[in-house]
Amino acid sequence: MNLLRSLIATQTKRICGVNLVKLFSKSSFNMSKFKVLIANNTIPPIAREILETDWKHNFNCSLIMGKFKVLVANNTIPQIAHDLLKSECEVRVCEAEREQILQNIPGIDAMLWSSHLQLDKEMLDKAGPQLKVIGTMSAGYDNIDVEELKKRGIKFGNTPGVLDDAVADIAVLLILAASRRYIEGRQAIEDCSWSHKNGTQWLLGQDVSGATIGIVGLGGIGQAIAHRVKCFNVAKILYTGHKEKPEGKAIGAEFVSLDALLKNSDFVICSAPLTKETDKMFNAESFSKMKKTSIFVNVSRGALVNQPDLVRALKEKQIFAAGLDVMTPEPLPPDHELLRLSNCVIIPHLGSATWKTRNAMAERAAKNILNALKGEPMISPVV
């Protein structure tokens, strides 16, 4: 009996490669009474698989896994993510400030990220080699050093898809507000310049009905925007990107070059991701190609736009108006020149800001993390 117990313990230690495995039993030698405790959650997946199959099946042992340590690097993350993670992991929470994160990151196995901060080599070094997975509560990840994650074998997932509808709604809001001169209308009310004497030509805007809509980046968000603008009886939807997409044909959108889109569109809507290729792609040259009656809308990332060039285009009436949910920097300083332009509608990066969407994003990020920790596929993996 003692020999068998010794063999079991030795086998488990050999499989796990750690000295943190303990066997507990009651006085009678009944294998169903045994509990195998893995007090180190960094064991190889093959060892875990053997324990969960052979031992659990053949000996009817119950398996207790040590809890992974997860850092939620933002104390405003929706509760659903906390509940999911706490059900299986040891969770610590900190504010989305660099120093706070650096203080709390050592020794963690996973991190839920939701911040404008750069997730870089310094943070990863501080975390330690046991870091296995990062889940971000966003679709974009231009502030995360993905190449460094690849080098270290750290899994990484984001939350595309779940925010498409909310962001597309904001795009429509900006299309309407910019084309119908919302800022000027509001100012007229506040400064008492709204009068019947203004006549029939006062604050005339641009029609969406019958317009040509150009979408730069026909991903999930771009497609959701296309579906919405079709309801306004637009004349045509153009799109551009790396290649023609079958989704474009399904929507009834036409694939064209960027130049053709800029020259022919009444509304140019940016929903492309920020990459080296798209950085500052909207600049003086781009705006000079657009119609003087056109409206520029950005719901992607502020860095896709050369902001001084946009200011100049708006001031010099090279384009009719702009609607921005994103800009550089964020938050925009209250004395920024864009805020003084009556033909520029600005909202504070509200694209995904609905209760339903933020909860769905938090849930997806948490599930990505849990799946990766269990050795299962992420719902939406990047790395």
From TrEMBL:
<protein>
    <recommendedName>
        <fullName>Glyoxylate reductase/hydroxypyruvate reductase</fullName>
    </recommendedName>
</protein>
<keyword id="KW-0560">Oxidoreductase</keyword>
<dbReference type="Pfam" id="PF00389">
    <property type="entry name" value="2-Hacid_dh"/>
</dbReference>
<dbReference type="InterPro" id="IPR050223">
    <property type="entry name" value="D-isomer_2-hydroxyacid_DH"/>
</dbReference>
<feature type="domain" description="D-isomer specific 2-hydroxyacid dehydrogenase catalytic">
    <location>
        <begin position="71"/>
        <end position="382"/>
    </location>
</feature>
<dbReference type="GO" id="GO:0016491">
    <property type="term" value="F:oxidoreductase activity"/>
</dbReference>
<dbReference type="InterPro" id="IPR006140">
    <property type="entry name" value="D-isomer_DH_NAD-bd"/>
</dbReference>
<dbReference type="Pfam" id="PF02826">
    <property type="entry name" value="2-Hacid_dh_C"/>
</dbReference>
<comment type="similarity">
    <text>Belongs to the D-isomer specific 2-hydroxyacid dehydrogenase family.</text>
</comment>
<dbReference type="InterPro" id="IPR006139">
    <property type="entry name" value="D-isomer_2_OHA_DH_cat_dom"/>
</dbReference>
<dbReference type="InterPro" id="IPR029753">
    <property type="entry name" value="D-isomer_DH_CS"/>
</dbReference>
<feature type="domain" description="D-isomer specific 2-hydroxyacid dehydrogenase NAD-binding">
    <location>
        <begin position="173"/>
        <end position="351"/>
    </location>
</feature>
<dbReference type="InterPro" id="IPR036291">
    <property type="entry name" value="NAD(P)-bd_dom_sf"/>
</dbReference>
